[in-house]
Write a structure and sequence with these properties.
This protein is α/β, with parallel strands linked by helices and 531 residues long. It contains eleven helices and 30 strands. Helix content is 24%, strand content 27%. It starts with a strand and ends with a strand. It binds alpha-L-arabinofuranose.
């Protein structure tokens, strides 16, 4: 799929200019933006795993956010809060990465199984020095994943653990109930083997995961890829466990080169089925941008930075193409999102931030980028699911609020496993000071039931955009869906006012000049194009 920024042919443009569908913005009449979808030229599948989540033992991401304990007055099923499960089921989370993050490389799974009262209490040395009660462990995670209807993406400890420890963990989860490991699992309440669909071979091994050189990591990774086996008899063929190796930190090509070179030379004994990329939108380090109060310059700077994801993926995909031209190994962007200054009066190690309309726009732009690279990017995990960084959900004791980013994930549901369609449009320019950005962004796809969908993001906080949609190979006379916007880009949802940024119905009908969508400033619109 191509995102073309060139204008349409002169004759088409002349027609648009003559069309009586001009929007009035800032006192100037503007021609509509001509957007052409080629419905007859299907692109790659937008894998539903692109909409994956990440839940680390960090702050209240797990304890409070997911796990409240069986005796909690907060409604729960076996200790897992019901409101959160219901909200996550509604966005059809395809996979959850757990237990970290940096936490994963210091996690010892045996601390988190068996009777709750005998579990070891440890210190979460990565995140605020909090006491880790280990009451949420393997069996609780698997129960959670099952309750929300998702797949498990388990990251093993390659930093401070051993190959044997990791191998025994996956054996515990997947072995036949007649084996010693399987019997132990059954005694802990789950006789049938669990399904471990994705296996992370370490985390950020270039930094918190052990500061390893790419070559050292690659050698270690091969041992894990060889010996950490999945024994679940149902996990064969398409269901086989996918091993995801640590890959690049942002633009650094060293891990991409080393891991992909070794993958190319792999023999029968080991392989990997994914290479991870981590890249956050931070506005500099340490993160100092506020999540609640920011001006338009800060908005534009952050949006500009986030659009860099496109170049990053292109850069690493080009390296991967040299070793793997058939694109067998996906690039898995398993940590991304906005990382902002911690909210006042919170533990800075808990990474608590609010989530604004700007963050929803950032999410939509990144999802669009992933969709455009769907041939190589087949899985991503936004950081993080609940109460941490760019969260879907914020909780406070028994209260829960859905963030603007959550709403984007819900609006984008039709794109899960949809087939991308080429979209051609002139993105125009949004200018803020010396920052120039595209004014609009869009993707289109045919969903699994054959329906056509268009998602448009208007980045400009002040100017509405009129889009004149034209289809090749299909007909559209109606557009029906939802729009997400608010009075300000820094608008947020709070426990007291939970629907400041919430989707509203959106529709358009074809007129004399075609199907025109009037997209409000600073908004995300997702519509089905109906014949
Ligand atoms: O998501 C927070 C942290 O960011 C993760 O633990 C780590 O992998 C990354 O540096």
């Amino acid at each position: 799929m191509i995102r073309a920024t060139r204008p349409l042919a002169a004759c088409a443009l002349a027609f648009m200019l003559a069309a009586p569908t001009l929007v009035q913005a800032q006192g100037r009449a503007e021609p509509p933006i001509a957007l052409r979808i080629d419905a007859g030229a299907p692109g790659p599948k937008i894998d539903r795993n692109i909409f994956g989540q990440f839940a680390e033992h960090l702050g209240t991401g797990i304890y409070g956010g997911v796990w409240v304990g069986k005796d909690s007055p907060i409604p729960n099923t076996r200790g897992i809060r019901d409101d959160v499960v219901q909200a996550l089921r509604a966005i059809k989370v395809p996979n959850v990465r757990w237990p970290g993050g940096c936490f994963a490389d210091e996690y010892h799974w045996r601390h988190g199984i068996g009777p709750a009262e005998s579990r070891r209490k440890t210190i979460n040395s990565n995140w605020g020095g909090a006491v880790e009660p280990n009451t949420f462990g393997t069996d609780e995670f698997m129960d959670f994943v099952d309750q929300i209807g998702s797949e498990a993406y388990v990251s093993v400890n390659l930093g401070s653990g051993t190959v044997q420890e990791a191998a025994e963990w996956i054996e515990y989860m997947t072995a036949d109930p007649e084996t010693t490991a399987g019997k132990e699992r059954a005694a802990n309440g789950h006789r049938a083997p669990y399904k471990v669909k994705y296996l992370g071979l370490g985390n950020e091994s270039w930094s918190c995961g052990g500061a390893m050189t790419p070559e050292y990591y690659t050698d270690e990774m091969k041992r894990y890829a060889r010996f950490v086996r999945n024994y679940n008899p149902k996990q064969t063929g398409a269901e086989a466990m996918q091993r995801i190796a640590v890959g690049p930190n942002q633009a650094d090509p060293a891990y991409t080169e080393a891991v992909m070179a070794s993958q190319k030379g792999h023999d029968w004994a080991w392989n990997i089925e994914g290479l991870s990329l981590h890249s956050y939108t931070t506005g500099g380090w340490p993160p100092s941008y506020s999540s609640t109060k920011f001006d338009e310059t800060a908005y534009a700077k952050l949006v500009k930075e986030t659009l860099g994801m496109d170049g990053l993926i292109a850069q690493h995909a080009a390296i991967m193409d040299r070793y793997d031209p058939e694109k067998k190994v996906p690039l898995v962007v398993d940590e991304w999102g906005v990382w902002l200054a911690p909210l006042e009066d919170t533990n800075p190690g808990f990474l608590v931030q609010q989530n604004s309309l700007r963050d929803a726009i950032v999410a939509a732009l990144n999802l669009n980028i992933f969709a455009r690279h769907a041939d190589r990017v087949r899985m991503t995990n936004i950081a993080q699911m609940i109460n941490v960084l760019q969260a879907m959900i914020l909780t406070d004791k028994d209260r829960m609020v859905l963030t603007p980013t959550y709403h984007v994930y819900k609006m984008y549901l039709p794109f899960q496993d949809a087939t991308a369609m080429p979209v051609n449009f002139d993105a125009g320019t949004y200018v803020q000071g010396d920052i120039k950005l595209p004014r609009v962004d869009a993707i289109a796809a045919r969903d699994t039931q054959g329906r056509l969908w268009l998602a448009v993001t208007n980045l400009d906080p002040a100017r509405p955009a009129s889009i004149l949609a034209d289809l090749t190979g299909a007909k559209a006379t109606n557009a029906r869906g939802q729009v997400l916007t608010a009075a300000r880009v820094d608008a947020v949802n709070t426990f007291e006012a939970p629907a400041v940024v919430a989707p509203r119905p959106f529709s358009a009908k074809a007129g004399r000049d075609g199907l025109r969508l009037d997209i409000p400033a600073k908004s995300i619109v997702v519509v089905q194009l109906e014949p």
